[in-house]
Design a protein that fits this description.
The complex is a heterodimer. By secondary structure, chain A is an alpha+beta fold. Helix content of chain A is 41%, strand content 25%. Chain A has 13 helices and 12 strands. In chain A, strand 4 and strand 5 form a beta hairpin. Chain A is globular, with a radius of gyration of 26 Å. The relative contact order of chain A is 0.12. Chain B is of the alpha/beta class. Helix content of chain B is 30%, strand content 29%. In chain B, the strands form 3 sheets. Chain B has a 6-stranded mixed beta sheet with strand order 6-7-8-3-9-10, sandwiched between helices. In chain B, strands 2-1-4-5 form a 4-stranded antiparallel beta sheet, with helices on one face. The C terminus of chain B is likely disordered. The chains are: A alpha+beta, B alpha/beta. Chains A and B meet through helix 1 of A and helix 2, strand 6 and helix 3 of B.
């Protein structure tokens, strides 16, 4: 233990300037997240405030590990009586004490400043820092241990980031699977890759420090990296589906048979002089699960129609709950494709991503300037107009790391058409999706702004750019009373359905596609 | 006496290059063993393999009674290692460098450290990066002798240093290494000659010979034989009949010069007379270590063993 402290003190002394700079970046981040800063640029580009500290942290990890670099035969320390456990312990202690605890305190300060109770904040922030330590810091430390200097470390980190980026986007680039929103909760394969990263990073770190050899660990790391990327790319959807099925069994439903695409596509022309190249396609989906309380939510529905070797992909949106047991999707389909195929039969490959959740909570609340605690980790308030805002807006904050899957927020007693209200209810605004999809750039609390619900933005955006909001011409006060529905612990379920001989029916102009 | 270092069939490859080839070496406890050899002979590889910096491909090395591959903190607390290319923590001041290392060594002797600092006139408050090469080497030496190591391994410690610094280092070694066995590799043969008790010559990854310094310097002699030029002149003598211990022979019609690697005051003149008849003069000159090394390096030392 004394050797751990001795080496730790040396590292802190060695890196005192860099540590000070890192802490300054943390303070800068706090400044950008409070009302003190004069510019909204950090709201527009939150990455400016968020990036500096994580980059500095990554460099500090490298500097600390490389103070006793393992590769190389001329290091002064390798013939000194260092105990490997003490050396590794000192480096881990450095990462925790110098990097994570200040980051934790910063996050804690921010969320307390935002009015979250300590009981809400502590667990989620601890969990966040633990995950960041395991999933980020440990693999970075392992990478530093296998490299001899900052240059090699940075290059390797960039190369890994590039391969991960390619693997993460490969599918959507090739259009192999319909691109999924980044807002969905992480899938099992994300967990798998993170697990691989933690286990691989920890094992490599232990082996490198224990054996003081990097040749074999470098080879293993390369294999792990390739394996991780390949596993991510080719992770079988069935495992994702199976795992989701297993975890949703407590809902006493079988998600695999919950949704059935009805064999029929209805087409109608659009009465809009601007949209001339598309017709509106409508598909009905039968559900055997009541869609009350957002227990199951359609995340996405896409279909590929094929006929005579030609292919057309339709992105459906705006799911509308029909009478019990039916959802209806609408999407634009190319006129040139569909015009010659009405009253014909096509082949349809449909892919549905839907979310299940539990711990539904719904309440009516009056929002005021002070944040109201909705559920642990979520609070909302009504921002008053200011010199920059000529309107009021509801404003929710979600604690980083909170188990909140969805938040629905819509006004009570709205005078708007019932149809709009119903549409908004179905148009779920997902706020947070667990810390995993947020880090490393969104440590601390996450803020989401809701637009004035009387003037919803198209497709129900949230987390909007406040600058864009300011530019809007709001002229009505927002209501103060809202129904806020929340759900927690989401699981994504992916289902693909192949249908042949699907009739394509052209509806007369007078018929409503609903 | 128990060897403090012992290797047996030690081999090490770097890709296609064979750095060590079945090296057998013994360093007796209490000795100062100078390992000499031409560039690329395998000196540094030998030392780094002994220090568990490199892992041998085959063979075995024992250092202070422990397999070199198992050298750990307990052993390194009794071993000092100083290398010309060692990357010291240059941000540290001399004072902090020594105070940082002190807790690692239970046997650290403050008095000895202070004495050596005075002897070397080391500036305690100066960062290592601002020290000259010689001063850095002195600081490294202080850090490696202050805990009275059982074994001190020095890899080219005098390389690139001016004569005064070399002298300082040599003196410090002699004065402070009374309880320490030393293995030192160097091209600075003159410096080694001044304090080494044993010499080993390594070439192409093999130890060609190793023996006590006194024995080595006594068996190498430059010999000059003057004979009457004629039928029995050196140029006409069959060189194949010359003993293999005669290195780098150089014959003119009247004079032959060579280095006798196994000089014996009784046997060598007999050999000369057997080959050249009755020479006019036989001149025998003792050789400095540097000349012995050059002779061995240029003639192929296999014949010298």
């Amino acid at each position: 233990m004394s050797q751990v402290l001795h080496i730790l003190k040396k590292d802190i002394r060695f890196l005192r300037n860099e540590i000070f700079l890192y802490w300054c970046f943390l303070a800068f981040f706090v400044w950008t997240r409070t009302e003190l800063h004069p510019s909204t640029i950090f709201l527009t580009f939150p990455i400016l405030g968020q990036l500096l500290a994580p980059i500095a942290a990554a460099l500090l990890i490298s500097r600390a590990i490389h103070a006793e670099a393992i590769p190389g035969s001329n290091r002064f320390w390798i013939t000194r009586p260092y105990r490997w456990g003490s050396l590794l312990g000192a480096k881990i202690a450095f990462i925790v004490l110098v990097l994570h605890i200040p980051m934790l305190l910063t996050s804690l300060f921010l969320v307390l400043l935002r009015g979250f109770p300590l009981s809400d904040a502590l667990w989620s922030i601890l969990l966040t820092q633990t995950m960041m330590f395991l999933v980020l810091s440990i693999p970075l430390a392992a990478l530093a241990a296998m490299t001899g200097g900052l240059g090699a470390y940075a290059l390797a980190a960039l190369a890994i980031a590039a391969t991960a980026f390619v693997a993460g986007n490969f599918e959507s680039w090739l259009g192999l699977i319909p691109p999924l929103s980044h807002l969905i909760p992480p899938s099992i394969r994300d967990w798998f890759v993170e697990f691989l990263s933690v286990v691989g990073g920890t094992s490599l770190l232990l082996v490198v420090f224990h054996n003081r050899r990097v040749g074999l660990p470098r080879g293993i790391a390369l294999v792990l990296l390739l394996f991780g990327n390949v596993a991510y790319l080719f992770f079988p959807a069935s495992i994702d589906g199976f795992a989701s099925t297993v975890v949703t069994k407590r809902l006493n439903r079988d998600p695999g048979t919950a949704f059935n695409v009805q064999p029929g596509i209805q087409i109608k022309k659009i009465d809009d002089p601007i949209i001339t190249n598309y017709w509106l396609a409508t598909v009905q989906v039968a559900t055997s699960i009541p869609l009350d309380e957002n227990r199951f939510l359609i995340e996405r529905f896409a279909a590929t129609l094929t006929e005579s070797g030609q292919r057309q992909t339709i992105e459906f949106d705006n799911p509308t709950a029909m009478d019990p047991g039916y959802l209806q999707f609408r999407g634009l389909v190319s006129k040139s494709f569909i015009e010659s195929r009405t009253d014909k039969r096509v082949r349809m490959h449909a892919a549905i991503d839907f979310l299940s959740s539990n711990r539904i909570d719904s309440q009516i609340i009056t929002l005021g300037p002070e944040p109201s605690r909705i559920i642990p980790g979520l609070q909302c308030n009504m921002d008053p107009p200011s010199d920059k805002k000529i309107y009021q807006e509801s404003h929710c904050e979600v604690l980083y790391g909170s188990e909140i899957a969805f938040v629905n927020i819509f006004p009570v007693g709205s005078t708007e058409a019932e149809d709009d209200i119903r549409r908004m209810a179905g148009d779920i605004r997902r706020l947070t999706h667990s810390f995993r999809s947020q880090w490393p750039l969104s440590w601390g609390n996450s803020q989401y702004y809701f637009e004035n619900p009387y003037y919803p933005l198209p497709s129900g955006r949230f987390g909007m750019d406040p600058i864009a909001e300011y530019s809007r011409n709001w002229d009505k006060p927002a209501p103060k009373e809202f129904r806020i529905s929340t759900a927690r612990i989401p699981y994504r379920i992916h289902r693909e359905i192949d249908l042949v001989d699907v009739p394509v029916t052209l509806l007369p102009k007078s018929a409503r596609g609903n | 006496m128990t060897p403090v270092i012992s290797t047996s069939g030690l081999s090490k490859h770097f890709r296609k290059t064979e750095a060590l080839h079945g090296l057998n070496l013994e360093v007796a406890e209490g000795s100062i063993f100078g390992l000499i050899g031409p560039n690329g002979a395998g000196k540094t590889t030998t030392l780094k393999t002994l220090m568990n910096i490199y892992r041998p491909d085959s063979g075995r090395a024992t250092v202070i009674g422990v397999d070199s591959r198992r050298l750990g903190p307990a052993e390194f607390a009794r071993i000092g290692y100083v290398s010309e290319n060692q990357e010291l923590p240059e941000w540290m001041t001399v004072e902090y460098f020594l105070s940082y290392l002190k807790p690692f060594y239970p046997a650290w002797d403050d008095a000895r450290a202070a004495a050596m600092i005075r002897q070397f006139e080391l500036p305690l408050n100066r960062q290592l990066k601002h020290l000259s090469r010689g001063m850095k080497m002195k600081a490294a030496l202080v850090s490696s002798l202050s805990y009275r190591p059982k074994l001190l391994v020095l890899d080219e410690p005098f390389s690139g240093l001016d004569p005064m610094v070399r002298e300082d280092l040599s003196e410090a070694l002699i004065e402070n290494a009374d309880e320490t066995s030393i293995l030192v590799s160097s091209h600075d043969l003159g410096d080694i000659e001044s304090f080494a008790s044993h010499i080993g010559y390594i070439e192409n990854g093999k130890l060609r010979f190793a023996e006590e310094m006194a024995s080595l310097t006594s068996r190498f002699r430059e010999v000059e034989v003057t004979v009457e030029s004629g039928a029995n002149g050196p140029q006409n003598a069959k060189s194949s009949a010359w003993p293999s211990t005669w290195l780098r022979p150089d014959a003119t019609p009247a004079v032959v010069r060579f280095v006798e690697s196994q000089f014996d005051p009784e046997r060598t003149p007999v050999e000369i007379r057997r080959i050249f008849g009755d020479p006019i003069q036989i001149s025998v000159t003792p050789m400095p270590l540097r000349s012995i090394f050059v002779t061995l390096a240029r003639s192929g030392a296999a014949t010298a063993a």
